[in-house]
Design a protein that fits this description.
Strand 3 and strand 4 form a beta hairpin. The protein contains 3 helices and 7 strands; from the N terminus they run E-E-E-E-E-E-H-H-E-H.
Length: about 130
């Protein structure tokens, strides 16, 4: 069984990023996606807090690392989902933003990442030529 506290490695265009997902209690429950480029002093920390239509694991039957709304869900434990969050953050200025900002609201990227992941899965499930 994998040690959930140990960062996993994601390689993107020859660059390695360490990442992990965890649950913590800071003024309430939150799910965190932590991403650092190997050797970099700063990185990206996306925080997901529950809200009106926003859901995170609550210790019940939900799976740790799964965040979503009423109808849309993402599993922060999947490397493809992490990669989509990293790509979306890069489009918005990461890693420069990471040097000056603290944790970011992960919900700001959620819709964009969900659309990308859903489209990628539909493409992967398409039947090939016969």
């Amino acid at each position: 069984m994998r040690n959930s506290r140990r960062p996993r490695v994601l390689t993107v265009r020859g660059q390695q990023f360490r990442w992990r997902t965890y649950h913590r209690h800071v003024d309430g429950c939150e799910e965190v996606l932590w991403i650092r480029q190997r050797g970099a002093p700063a990185g990206l920390t996306l925080v997901f807090r529950p809200g009106a239509e926003r859901r995170i694991p609550d210790g019940g039957v939900s799976t740790a690392g799964v965040v979503g709304t009423r109808d849309l869900w993402l599993n922060l434990n999947e490397p493809g989902v992490v990669r989509a969050f990293l790509d979306a953050a890069v489009r918005r200025g990461f890693p420069a933003v990471a040097r000056t900002a603290g944790p970011c609201d992960g919900w700001e990227l959620f819709d964009e990442v969900h659309a990308h992941v859903t489209a990628s899965r539909r493409y992967a499930e398409r039947p090939g030529p016969e």
